[in-house]
Amino acid sequence: VLKTSRAAVLTGYKTPLEIREFPLPQTIEPGAALVRVKLAGICGTDVHLWHGQLPIPLPVILGHETVGVIEELGHGLIHDWSGQPLSAGDRINWSSSINCGECYYCRVRPEPTRCLKRKAYGISYDCSVAPHLLGGYADYIYLRPGTAIFKLPEALPTEAVVGAGCALVTSLHGIERIGVRPGDNVVVQGSGPVGLASLAVAKACGAAQVIVLGGPPHRLEIAKRFGADVCLDVEESSVEERRAEVLELTGGFGADVVLECVGIPLAVTEGIELCRDGGRYLVLGHYGNAGTIEFNPHVVTRKQLTLAGSWGFEPRHTKAALEFLSREREQFPFEQLIGEPFALDRAFEALQATASWSTAKSAIAP
Ligand SMILES: [Zn+2]
Ligand SMILES: [Zn+2]
């Protein structure tokens, strides 16, 4: 009997996801794994993909923030990326992309997140081609050889891992590049998943105060629960009012570090003005291409600013994120970001829930 797996498939931009059945692979390649999906997170990026804002092949099974249970392991896959033994029945998470390890950016100028042949589950694979099941919105997912797999500690809930999703790893990578030091005054622009995760990481790095500029109010409530010192609703305040408030809160100087987690170009114009002289600015929220803005470079020179960007994350950030969650979960309850999970056949509703920001984040439990 040929076993099959259902999957929610994006067949065309801005159209409902279709539930389709795919055959399970009959043999598992050496180093690969067949995994039963427990919970698949819906990332804001999935909404951008649905709108057609990033070039991807279609049809595609979306879903790049997933926790599952190993159904079958290919030959030779005996331990996870950290060296822990792996066996069928283990609950795992994995880095959503695989880099080639051989190109200019993998080897010569190590920037592996810019690997020339990087492929990501739930984004880069045409699901009409075998092994089909390379996205999280499905009963099963097939993990190709070379995937960085992590066995989850028993005490770490599935909901916390999916709730932190790719936002936490993205923030860990970005903040590693720009640096947050103990005693820093930090402004986080945005209170979506990346903003909340950046708030958590900045707090854990020892920031003296973290000021969150975001909305809507239910997200700012979560920011307060995560320890934000001050939250300003961007709908209820002007650019000038927010700047005055940040100056007031930083002795008139401005923030040591400003983290952009919004994805709206104008936020950058506002944000660099919130930095103190010699401050640091990170553009983290522009995974999608949201267009250009007018920009005065004089500000960067006069303020002696350091500007940085950060793209995606590496397996070591996934390892760090899982350790962060295990260590800091009391302080930062990421599981609370997820609403009641949707069944797989309601995947499109789940995607719409994330698109409309009606929940902090939605998830699918097949
Ligand atoms: Zn994502
Ligand atoms: Zn490469």
Low-confidence stretches: none
Number of beta-strand segments: 17
Cα Rg: 21 Å
Helix content: 25-40%
How big a fraction of the residues is strand?
Answer: 15-25%
Bound molecules: zinc ion
| Form type | globular
Helical stretch count?
A: 10
- C-alpha end-to-end distance: 22 Å
- Largest sheet entry: 6 strands, antiparallel
Average pLDDT for all residues:
96
Topology as a string of helices (H) and strands (E) = EEEHEEEEHEEEHEHEHEHEHEHEHHE
What structural category characterises the helix and strand content? alpha/beta
Entry summary:
With 366 residues, the protein is of the alpha/beta class. It has helices at 44-50, 104-107, 158-178, 193-204, 217-225, 239-249, 266-272, 298-303, 315-328, 347-355; strands spanning 4-10, 18-23, 33-42, 60-61, 65-73, 91-94, 97-98, 119-120, 140-143, 149-151, 185-189, 209-214, 230-233, 255-260, 275-283, 306-309, 362-364.
